[in-house]
Specification:
- The chain is globular.
- The strands form six sheets. The chain has a six-stranded antiparallel beta sheet. Strands 17-24-19-20-21 form a five-stranded antiparallel beta sheet. The chain has a four-stranded antiparallel beta sheet with strand order 1-7-3-4, with no helix packed on it.
- By secondary structure, it is mainly β.
- It has two helices and 24 strands.
- The protein has three domains: about 100 residues, no CATH class; about 100 residues, no CATH class; about 100 residues, no CATH class.
Length: about 350
């Protein structure tokens, strides 16, 4: 049994849905999980319209946004939205911006708390050296690292210990649909990360002189979070992806072919199996609700499509998932499927 000491993952991650009210003073949003959650990292998408994904965090401040589907530098232009506060069990939008509070528009927010073993945020100033060590507080070797240049336009650069990955050569891009790339010179990442630091590369993408950066670090915590990989089987009765918990959020990317999006599903936009309400982290597209993609089960995700973006035969995929419930609690209570 996959026992855990953490019985309520909603203390660390929650998905929250809401409708914009168009109030120029903003709107206070309250989470609905079993635990209160003062999130440090809030990712919001307008589900109704083709609008950018808005990403804010408590380290940079809610008035400074970056866009997961864009290479644009950090913006503090609150005319689009962003946040005015991170609250004890939610957040408050800054105004009536299209990114997070336009009147009558439907939104989803994914909300993470900084906690050892699960998630950490670091900001740093670049120095253009390949041996740079940036300290972090994750307390374990990061399973996934995302770095964004805040000063200049640049992709969202990703490295992971959970796929075939050479740290001084390989990379993925959150804002792109490209396959795993290779730069061959340590320009994106300089070395394998450790439980106390990570090593950005030697150029402007992740470590340029006089450039400011934000890094998001994710760990594997039993019963709470999982970064991993799976191989597609090309069958509509698709492969099973083990997480060790009942998922609340699942994002996946095919890594061996181009033009493959970062697909995102969660437990709130889909209230029962099969899950069909999909968003794409690298695209501003509105929610797609047309085709069944997956089931959330008590200990993982069952893929329910032969789509090449989800389950091509023999294809390699990376995924990141966060829990609604552990498979088995600390007292031996098992989770149930949806």
């Amino acid at each position: 049994m996959a026992y855990t000491t953490i019985d309520d993952p909603s203390a660390y991650f929650q998905t929250t849905l809401y409708t914009g009210n168009g109030n120029g003073s903003g709107q206070a949003i309250t989470h609905g999980g079993n635990s209160d959650l003062q999130a440090d990292f809030i990712w919001i998408k307008n589900r109704t319209d083709a609008e950018n994904h808005s990403v804010t965090d408590s380290v940079r401040g809610g008035g400074k946004g970056v866009l997961s589907n864009s290479s644009d530098a950090e913006s503090n232009n609150n005319s689009n939205g962003y946040l005015s506060s991170f609250n004890s069990d939610g957040f408050t939008t800054a105004n009536a911006g299209v990114y997070n509070n336009a009147s009558s528009k439907n939104y989803v927010s994914w909300n993470w708390k900084k906690v050892a073993g699960v998630f950490d945020i670091q900001t740093y100033a670049g120095n253009n050296t390949g041996s740079r060590q940036v300290s972090h507080n994750l307390g374990v070797v990061p399973s996934l690292i995302i770095i964004k240049n805040r000063t200049n336009a640049s992709s969202w650069w990703i490295g992971s210990t959970e796929i075939s990955f050479t740290w001084n050569a390989d990379y993925l891009q959150l804002n792109e649909s490209a396959a795993k790339g290779t730069d061959g010179g340590g320009h994106i990442f300089g070395a394998v990360p450790t439980s106390s630091y990570f090593v950005p590369g030697d150029n402007n993408d992740t470590n340029g002189n006089s450039n400011n950066y934000v890094a998001y670090l994710f760990g594997n915590k039993q019963g709470v979070s999982k970064v991993g990989s799976y191989t597609g089987n090309g069958n509509a009765n698709g492969t099973f992806v083990y997480t060790g918990f009942k998922p609340a959020f699942f994002m996946a990317k095919r890594t061996d072919a181009s033009d493959m999006p970062w697909v995102m599903i969660d437990n709130k936009r889909n209230s029962f199996n099969a899950l069909s309400n999909t968003l794409l982290a690298n695209s501003n597209e509105a929610a797609n609700t047309g085709t069944d993609r997956a089931d959330f089960l008590s200990q993982g995700v069952k893929i329910r499509t032969n789509s090449t973006a989800w389950n091509a035969s023999g294809a390699s995929f990376i995924f990141m998932a966060f829990a609604e419930n552990p498979f088995v609690t600390s007292t031996g209570v098992p989770a149930t499927a949806r």
